[in-house]
Amino acid sequence: MKPGDVVVGAFPGADTTKIRPAVVLSTELYHSHRPDVIVGLITTQLPKELAPTDCELHDWRHAGLHQPSFFRLFPVTLLQREVRLIGRLSESDWTSVRACFRAGFGSD
Question: What is the CATH code of the structural domain delimited by 5-105?
Answer without folding.
Answer: 2.30.30.110
